[in-house]
Amino acid sequence: MSVLQDLQTRAAASPACIVLSEGHDPRIVAAAIAAVDAGIAKIILVGPTDEITKQLSDAGRTPNEDIRIEDPATSSFTTAVAQGYFELRKSKGISEKTALKQAQDPLVFSAMLVRHGHADGTIGGAVATTTKIMRAALHIIGKAETAPLVSSFFLMILPEGHPSERSAMIYSDCGLIIDPKAEELAAIAQQSAASCKALIGETPKVAMLSFSTLGSARHAKVSKVVKATALVKAQSPDLNVDGELQFDAAFVPSVGESKAPDSSVAGHANVMVFPNLDAGNIGYKITQRIGGATAIGPILQGLAKPANDLSRGCVTQDVLNMITITALQASPN
Fold first, then answer.
1. DSSP alpha helices (H): ranges in 13-137?
2. Could you report how far apart the first and last alpha carbons of the chain are, in Å?
3. What is the mean predicted confidence (pLDDT) over 130-140?
4. What is the pLDDT of residue 306?
5. pLDDT of residue 318
6. Can you list the alpha helix ranges (DSSP code H) found in the chain?
7. Pair type for strands 307-309 and 121-124
8. CA–CA separation, 160 vs 265, rounded Å?
9. pLDDT of residue 51
10. Which of 14, 155, 169, 258 could form a disulfide with 296 if both were Cys (CB 3.0 to 4.6 A apart)?
11. What is the reported pTM?
12. Which pairing describes strands 205-209 and 240-245: parallel, antiparallel, or unpaired?
């Protein structure tokens, strides 16, 4: 069974309700149908009722309990959404009139449905920018009480039969925190290890990446990674983590044995923690475009409830993949 098939099977064991804030987009509608057919999730499509109904009709479907339409202009939820948004943001100077207007925004409406428990998670970004998606998630759903921060990761699914014999890896943070301090980097590493265990089902082996391996270079940027590694080891002594490691030392067993012979992570890492967003974003795109990996993300971690972002260049399969991941994040298991 492929990684994606395994993820879908696990999601189907406990289907979640996922609200899609761009329900009028053909890619979103197609993915919603595919998710329901696969038993992964129940779907709420947010947007104009007539437009979404037509798209469903063109696909031979009608709205039902598995694929619902909620139009903020007419929904029975809108009044409660507006009031809830007002209570949430009145300390920031939001008036009731402004809150009612904001309730018509599909991103706000969708995030409030999750906050109020009418859905288990939300996804957007096929049309809206990442900035708008992140703002709605952070302002409305918010950080989990136990989380030190909200960060992101990509689930990188390697081609079947990859020479490394790996099937999937976690890359973080590749989408949110631009230049994390050592304390933030340590938190990202621990969140990403938890995400690895939850999604890939493997024991995390966390590599704190740098341009240096265990003292081969000296620089303030290396020192940051060294400090972050020490913090992770102190805060999570049972977590298998090492650093600073260069990517080849973390990924290739022979190089890891040569550069870090006493490391249990070197050469076998399945969680790659990049020192900043420059490295992370470039790294995941090289792995995707040259290495042929499937990149799912950015997936947010540390929120009170799941909310995730899509690329505006996404295709239906990308949306289906993100529905699967979001459903799994919402699962109590």
1. 26-37, 49-58, 78-89, 96-102, 106-115, 130-136
2. 21
3. 90
4. 96
5. 93
6. 3-12, 26-37, 49-58, 78-89, 96-102, 106-115, 130-136, 182-199, 220-235, 247-251, 253-259, 277-289, 316-330
7. parallel
8. 23
9. 94
10. 155
11. 0.90
12. parallel
